[in-house]
Fold this sequence. Notes:
The protein is mainly α. Helix content is 70%, strand content 0%. It contains 14 helices and no strands.
Amino acid sequence: MSRAAAADRRGEDVVRAHMPLVGHLVREMLSRVPTHVNRDDLLSAGYAALVAAARGFDADRGVPFARFAAARVRGALLDELRGMDWASRSVRQRARRTDMARQELTAELARTPSATEVAERLGCSVEDLAAADDDVHRAIVFSLQGFATGGAESMVAEPSAGPEELLIRRERLGYLRHAVEVLPERLRAVVIGYFFEERPMADIAADLGVTESRVSQLRAEALTLLRDGLNAHLDPALAAQNPPKEGCVARRRAAYYERIAAHGTLQSRLAVTGPDGLPVAA
Length: 282
């Protein structure tokens, strides 16, 4: 076998060995974009970037191939999403209005408002609200609507990120993992089932013995709680701009924030990701 043929074979082996990395990055991206984004389109872009990364990889630079390829694949996925215009300004504005309406009603009623009550506050139908939620919530699950307020690029670590930036990102991912783990039982079941296991909402509703509308409601409540919990620990200045009102709701939120802090240490939060910043198995 010629030297060129041997190099091609090694490249093919590297691509095959790292194909699961593309699947992982695509799943991660799909968890924060609207439902109309096509999975196959992202996979195609990711696999093409993986092949290009294998061809352009230089081991002498001292960068592990997995990290090098992950940066290339993420960049390709972002380029694909830019072409789809997945997070328009109107979607982001709708997210803020819906979230504000839910928070106001929760404070006024001292309970989680129904979909009908939220729709009435917004002046739309329940069907319109459900349709808007489908677009909004996938777009904010990882950015958590205020935890990272920038565009798509701000959600992904820069390929040239230094040790300090990488360490901060790993700590944030650790906080996110722990914040999910200490959610109230029903909220945790919805978040894990919908975003991590990618189960249909109807299946989650059947398991919990509630309607799909109620699952959508729980999903919105969980995301708001996650966002505020992370802000309380990672961006106190931002959290101070929207202080919780007094009462039982505020006390439950404060208790949740304390559970996040007590659930782990810096070491355990960093253990959620590897040295290259990629998530490890739970």
